[in-house]
Amino acid sequence: MKSPTRRFKVKRLKHIGLLPTLVTLGNIVCGFAAVVFASRSMVEGALKHAADASHYFELGAWMVIIAMVFDALDGRVARMTGSASKFGAELDSLCDAVSFGLAPAFLAYVTIDAFPGIVPRKVAIAICAVYAACAVLRLARFNVETTLDEEAHMSFRGLPSPAAAGVVVSLVLLRTHLADTRLADAVVILLPFAVLGSGIAMISNLRYTHLVNKLLRGHHRFARMAEVVLVALMAAIDPEVTITLGFCGYALSGPVMWFFRKPQPVIAPGGTPTPEKKPSRAPGED
After folding, report:
1. Interval 111-119 mean pLDDT
2. With CB atoms 3.0 to 4.6 Å apart as the test, which of 128, 168, 181, 198 could cross-link to 104 if both were Cys?
3. Most confidently modeled range among 1-5, 194-198, 226-230
4. Does 26 reside within a domain?
5. pTM of this prediction?
6. What residue numbers bound the domain in which 210 lies?
7. Quick check: is 12 in a domain?
8. Into how many domains does the chain fold?
9. Is residue 253 a contact partner of residue 208, using CB atoms and an 8 Å limit?
10. Residue 174: φ, ψ to 5°
11. Looking at the DSSP assignment, which residues form a beta bridge with residue 207?
12. Has residue 195 been placed in a domain?
């Protein structure tokens, strides 16, 4: 006698939020454009068209920055329109994998490869591949741990992938900005360490503040407005240096806050908080 075939119910997506989805897709379009422009710059460089190569390369780097704007807006638009969903979260991570994982790694590789005497090509490939892998791991962990409510988006565990991409892309832009100075080679030497460090920070347990939600939510002192205006003025005067300082400063804020954090009190069984103690070392443990 033939056993009955077991049927499984297939989940089907019926509705999506149109506006937040379009904003999220703007993210991946910018990431794709960044790869295209960076590839075009390599072609122009091979043809000895230095000016065109630099122009297309800068366009590619700025595409990643624009992708960050879309990434910062899509979640807030979804929550404001009441259309936050698991589909939106998954789509956002897939787009981030391209815009903040693949694109910055490729831009960093193109920059390092243009100066083969400074960093070996194989080392550059390995470091950029590690960064891309860390970005995907970071996004997968975020999807597992995060929820759709607003309170879950006030801080991050590990450096957010847009911020890591900002560190890489800002240094890439800074090298182009300093092309006619002696500091350009120093940026190329620093870039592999920044790429590797950003990748490791993404999969670390360091805590980072969600700056966009913190600035847009609630009321702030008037001095905060003055700070925002000052940063905007600096960005208008020298955008490459300003965004480099901003992204690198944010990436370093995690280790700095971890180093200076106060031990959290542990609640004893009787209800009295006791200072947190460091774990004792096992015999023979360094």
Report:
1. 85
2. 168
3. 194-198
4. yes
5. 0.81
6. 18-260
7. no
8. 1
9. yes
10. -65, -40
11. 157
12. yes
**Considering the domain boundaries, does residue 9 fall inside one?**
no
Among 99, 42, 43, smallest CA distance to 69 is for: 99
183-202 and 239-260 helices, crossing angle to 10°: 40
* 54-63, 177-186, 265-274: least confident range: 265-274
Mean pLDDT of the 169-174 span: 94
271 torsion bin: left (phi>0), alpha (psi -120 to 50), beta (else):
left
89 vs 153: CA distance, rounded Å: 12
Structure tokens at 59: 């366009």
CATH number for the domain harbouring residue 235: 1.20.120
User: Which residue in the block uniquely carries the two structure tokens 């870039």?
Assistant: 191
